[in-house]
């Protein structure tokens, strides 16, 4: 296993994720083990799990931090879910690219309680690793171009560090061009 570079870790130290399953949500630990995925975990202060606070405190670059968002699309009586990955410096195109990919009349972020209940993960720690198997994982091209990523671990008290190849190898994962757009510089700073 190749360890994450210091430039991605910031001030954190990470160890192989399966050596500290107490720092992972149960579905995440199960998926890492069953799919033999390479991942490292680092404990963090749960109060600093939100991306901006986390990156500022631990020195993890925003452009190495990938957020997982559960999106729900509805057409008639049919509901579809997907986990969409984008860098912290980008915004998902929910009403355009994602709505079309879900073949939905309406698409939006899944309500917090529903996302938490359906994934078995904590809000602020949701990750594509261990999500319900019938949900696709759509990875923005900007995420796919990074060598290493910092992502959720399923709980607020830790973060996973994974090679992008690991994320792309998760069953159901797919690189999607045009899934997100760059956030204006001023919006990132505020």
UniProtKB/TrEMBL annotation:
Stretches of the chain forming a coiled coil according to its record: none
Domain YbaK/aminoacyl-tRNA synthetase-associated, first and last residues per copy: 46-168
InterPro entries from the UniProt entry: YbaK/aa-tRNA-synt-asso_dom_sf (IPR036754), YbaK/aa-tRNA-synth-assoc-dom (IPR007214)
GO molecular-function term, one example from the UniProt record: aminoacyl-tRNA deacylase activity
Name the record gives this protein: YbaK/aminoacyl-tRNA synthetase-associated domain-containing protein
